[in-house]
Amino acid sequence: MAAFPDSASLDGGRLLPLAEDFYTIQGEGRHAGMPAYFIRLGGCDVGCAWCDAKYTWNPRLFPPAEVDSVVGRAVASGARAVVVTGGEPLLYPLGPLTDALTGQGLRICLETSGSHPFSGRFDWVCLSPKHRRPPLEEAFARADELKVVVGSEEDFEWAEENAARTSEKCRLYLQPEWSAAERMMPAIVEYAKARPQWNISIQTHKYMRIP
Ligand code: SF4
After folding, report:
1. Which member of 9, 32, 86, 94 has the lowest number of beta carbons within 10 Å of its beta carbon?
2. Which residues have C-beta atoms less than 6 Å from ligand 1?
3. Which atom of ligand 1 is nearest to the CA of 133?
4. What fold characterizes domain 11-208?
C-alpha cells in the first residue's frame, strides 16, 4: 500500500496532496444540482472495486500543493460552496484548508468514507460508508447525510446497519452503483417507497457529462 504523507511533511495541513480542483456542479446526494468548487485530494486506502476515482489512490502522484493557492482559485471561481473530496480527504489534517475557506465565507461540504479521524470544520458532512473499511464511530455523529452505494440486494442490509448508527438529523440516501444502476434501480425504488426515511441519489453529473 502507498505511504501517505504525514502531518509534519504537510506542514500541519498548509500543504495537501491535491489531485485536482475545478468548478462544477455537485451531482449527488442532498446538494445535487448545486454549483460548487471541488477540491479533490489524492490518496485513498479503501480500495472500492467500483471506484470512479481510482486515479487518485496513489498519493505519490500528487505532490503537496499550497492550501492558500487552492483557496485562492476557489474564491476566484465565484463559487459559494466547496466540496472537499478525494480519494479519502480525512487521511490528512484539514484544519488549515477549512479555516481558510471559512475565512473567505465559503460553505464547506465534505465527502468521506469516515474511515479516518476527523479534522477541520465543515458545514455539511456526507458520509458514504464502505465495506472494505467501515466508518469510525465519530463519523456517524458528524454525518448530515448518509449516502450508501447499492450494488446488490445485500447492500440494503448494510445500509440499515449504518443508518442505525446515525443521528436523527442525518438524511438517508441510497445511490445505485453506476454499473449496476439499471439492474438495481427497480429494487431501490421499491425499497425507498416502503421505507420513506430513505431517499434516492443518482449520479446526475454523469448525465450532465461533467466531472
Ligand atoms: S473510498 Fe471513495 S475514493 Fe476511496 S476507493 Fe472507495 S469510492 Fe474510491
Report:
1. 9
2. 44, 46-48, 51, 53, 86-88, 113, 130
3. 1
4. TIM Barrel (3.20.20)
